[in-house]
Design brief:
Number of strands: 4
Strand content: 5-15%
Shape: globular
Family: Belongs to the peptidase C48 family.
Number of domains: 1
Helix content: 25-40%
Strand order of the largest sheet: 1-2-3-4
CATH class: Alpha Beta
Order of helices and strands: HEEEHEHH
CATH topology: Adenoviral Proteinase, Chain
Protein name: Ubiquitin-like protease family profile domain-containing protein
Distance between the termini: 51 Å
CATH architecture: 3-Layer(aba) Sandwich
GO molecular function, one term: cysteine-type peptidase activity
Keywords: Hydrolase, Protease
Length: about 190
């Protein structure tokens, strides 16, 4: 009985935290999700000790997956991505995300036509399309460099550029990020 209570409490606490994040209460920039076009999230793929970058393109109803091991494996959608899509759909509905129309009228966007009910809290099971991005820099299968790749993907996308596989040198990225961290430490000291 106590374990059930603790599990329910933990789930409720997580739900509140995620709802508050989507409403902009915990985002460092102070912007709620309905005021931005894209949200970047790094996701740990559980037992594999591997990270991928997920980009929610809210106006297009797309979840883009940037996986630095995607060319090395032939398998279905990772469980974490499937769970994330269901969780995102649920929390956007629970937080009345689609009711917030001061910047975007979600019901008029092509990506959401036929997917939102009369009341926007009634949403379709297939709200988001998951798109695995191909032809991006890939790490060696036996390396643990996924963090460098995720950081590089975010940096490239934040500069509104396309992520391409040509010209990516992981050792140069390691050195560059180490230099940036050292410089940051020196300026803060």
């Amino acid at each position: 009985m106590q374990e059930d209570y603790e599990e329910s409490y933990a789930l409720a606490k997580n739900k509140d935290a995620i709802t508050n994040t989507t409403n902009g209460f915990y985002i460092p920039s102070g912007l709620p999700w309905h005021m931005v076009d894209e949200v970047n999230v790094s996701v740990n793929c559980g037992k594999e000790f591997h990270w991928v970058l997920i980009v929610f393109v809210l106006k297009e109803g797309v979840i883009r997956v940037y996986d630095s091991l995607s060319s090395k494996r032939k398998r279905k959608l990772p469980n974490e991505i499937q769970k994330l899509e269901v969780m995102l759909r649920t929390y956007l509905s629970d937080s009345d995300f689609f009711e917030k129309t001061e910047r975007t009228d979600w019901s008029t966007l092509e990506a959401y036509k036929g997917k939102l009910g009369q009341q926007t809290d009634l949403i379709s099971q297939n709200l988001f399309y998951v798109d695995y991005i191909k032809n991006i820099p890939q790490q060696a299968y036996d390396s643990l460099d996924c963090g460098v790749f995720v950081a590089a993907y975010v940096e490239i996308l934040s500069e509104e550029q396309q992520v391409h596989s040509c010209g990516f040198d992981v050792e140069s990225q390691h050195a560059r990020y180490a230099s940036l961290l050292w410089h940051y430490r020196e300026t803060k000291a």
